[in-house]
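Board notes (copied after class):
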Amino acid sequence: MPVYNILIADGLEENGQAILHSVARVEDRSGISPEELIDIINDYDALIVRSRTKVTPRLLEAAGRLKVVGRAGVGVDNIDLEAAQDHGVKVVNAPTSSSLAVAELTIGLMLALAREIPRADAGMKQGAWLKQELSGMELHGKTLGILGVGRIGAQVCARASAFGMRVLGYDAHNTTEAIEGCGAKPVSLEELYSRSDFISLHLPLTDETRSMVGEQAFGRMKRGVRIISVARGGILDESALLDALESGQIGGAALDVFASEPPGASELVQHPNVIATPHVGAQTAEAQARAAEDIANEVLAALKGEPLRWKVI
């Protein structure tokens, strides 16, 4: 039986590590620097990363025996897929592991926007009683537009419907039947923008979606709309969003992802109508355990030449 060498670059929950240790030599080098990684990568058959480690053409060039890169999560924008394909390296991920966690955070951020929960809490901690200043809105009866009705968008749809919201869905790569199947009404992008009281983004970051939601899009939206982004930084044009917040065209935004992370104390982060969280969509104990188990099994399947559930390339 062959013995595989597997390197973990960004940490992995114990349940996933136990699966790997049962059949492979595993080294956990959480936090390893890019230069250190390049120096040792040639010793490994598999590399497991999260979003921190960048799998670059230079790294892949140095990885003579590497067979597979596993992303313990959904997004693979930190992995150069073209270079991986050129070097014959498979890329797998764990796309279903965090769907519930991200969907629940989306609903939490929507409620926080609707009821100004962060402002209320901050006021209390400063000894202020802001009851007369805090007049929120109910989600019931409002219209939610979901931009990207995939696994996470469908979960958001189900939860929003339970609040009594009308749900509109737009997805250029999904069928009308699939969108209707999760309880959303399929609409054009124009209709989604013009009718929605809340808009939630659930798209991957691609050349097509980069800066997709910017000045022109904001101008087509209902004045005062609230936007929630827990997908990928870069889909929202952050400069245009700041301008739209200042003008009142956008009534509020809840952002878990940013074009550059961490974003620091930027004007956007500090804006009074913005709720900002540090990319915690998948940061639940349950989601992390699922991701660890899923990616461990998928990486081992790739090494053994078995069928793959979540092959990216």
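Comment from the instructor: The domain at 4-97+285-304 is CATH 3.40.50.720 (Rossmann fold). The first helix runs from residue 14 to 21.
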